[in-house]
Amino acid sequence: MKPIMHIVTVLALSPLLSGCIAWEIRDEIRATNQNLCEVKPALVHTLHSVEETNQKIAVTQAQLAEIQAALVVTQSKLDAVHASLTRTDEHLTTVGGTLGQTNPKLVDLDGGLERMKVLNDVHATLKDVQAALGPLSGAMGSLGGAMSFLGLSSDSSTDLLEAEEESAAADAAPVEASAADSTAKPAAGSAADASEAGASKRPDPLLGTWVQVYPPPSAQAPGTTSVRITVVTADGRVVSAHDGQKPRSGKWTRQGRTLTFSFDPVSAGAQPEVETGELLSLNSRALTIRVGDSIRVHARP
Predict the structure, then answer these.
(1) Which range has highest mean pLDDT (10-24, 136-150, 208-222)?
(2) Which residues contact 47 (CB under 8 A, 6 or more apart)?
(3) Measured between alpha carbons, how far is 300 from 283 in angstroms, rounded to an integer?
(4) Quick one: pLDDT band at residue 74, thresholds 50, 70, 90?
(5) 3-state SS string over 12-54?
């Protein structure tokens, strides 16, 4: 608008100007018109470019709106995933607590399986002991018959230990009486030797097979058996099988009411296991012995 105003102003003043100045002004006006004609296409092109840019901006805004809507949907999905992960974490925590309760039960089950294995070993051992005691049982039957034949058997309620002590006292009385009479000393000595020889030939009432019946099973350790079999033989040997252990063998000695078992070492270089007890009562069917502070009761099988 300013160039046009200048041109109008110049035209209005041209009559007042000289000829040369008028021609120069005319030339300037022509040059300006020519420049305006050249600028107009550029302006048109610029306007088209601005319109295209506006269209692209509109498209971009639409795409941005779509992206924003997609982000909203994605955010809602992420919220759902987060909630799901939270529930999963809570479930895993619950499962961890359940596993914490299950682990002790599995440990108990493992212990039960170990006890079952021990019981199976005990059962196999008892079978071996039973097979080994078969011939010994026949021998003990023959020994019982021999004892009956020799008049050494007694009623099941008779305490054999008391009877043995009374018999020993009765055998010792003639020896003491003969010691007072010096003239009869050789004869008394012969009588005492004969009495001792007779006593030495008597089978020990402890011989045979015994099964422990007390303490009862409830007093035993969990997972073990209350069966304890002890076999005492006339040659001074003893065999004992107890609670799934391997049968132990050794020697036995008895001095009056004191009974001593000396079991063979379980390994080379080990010491024999010695077990000493006091015989409280003994008859043809039952044996009671005190070992330390415990009382054990055995019976004939």
Answers:
(1) 208-222
(2) none
(3) 10
(4) very high
(5) HHHHHCCHHHHHHHHHHHHHHHHHHHHHHHHHHHHHHHHHHHH
Helix (H, G, I), strand (E, B) or coil at 250: strand
Cα within 13 Å of Cα(22), Cβ side = 9
pLDDT > 90: percent of the chain? 18
Query: Is residue 119 within 8 Å of 127, Cβ to Cβ?
Result: no
Give the burial string for 144-164 (b: 16+ CB within 10 Å, else e): beebeeeeebeeeeebbbeeb
Burial of 139 (0-12, 13-18, 19+ CB in 10 A): middle
Which pLDDT value is given to residue 148?
Answer: 46
Q: Is residue 136 part of a domain?
A: no
What CATH number does residue 256 fall under? Answer: 2.40.128.280
DSSP state of 182: G
pLDDT number for residue 267: 79
Q: Is residue 170 part of a domain?
A: no
Reported as a single tens digit per residue, the pLDDT across 260-272 is: 999 888 777 788 8
* CB neighbourhood size of 104 (10 A): 9
Residues 231 and 112 in one domain: no
Altogether, the residues listed in the chain come to a count of: 301
pLDDT (mean) for 107-129: 81
Last residue of one domain, picked from the residues 129, 163, 184: 129
Please name the residues in contact with 59: beta carbons below 8 A apart, sequence gap of 6 or more: none
Q: How many domains does the chain have?
A: 2
Candidate from 94-108, 168-182, 231-245 with smallest mean pLDDT:
168-182
Parent domain of 122: 1-129
Q: Which of 99, 129, 159 is the last residue of a domain?
A: 129
**Which of 148, 149, 294, 301 lies closest to 212, judged by CA?**
301
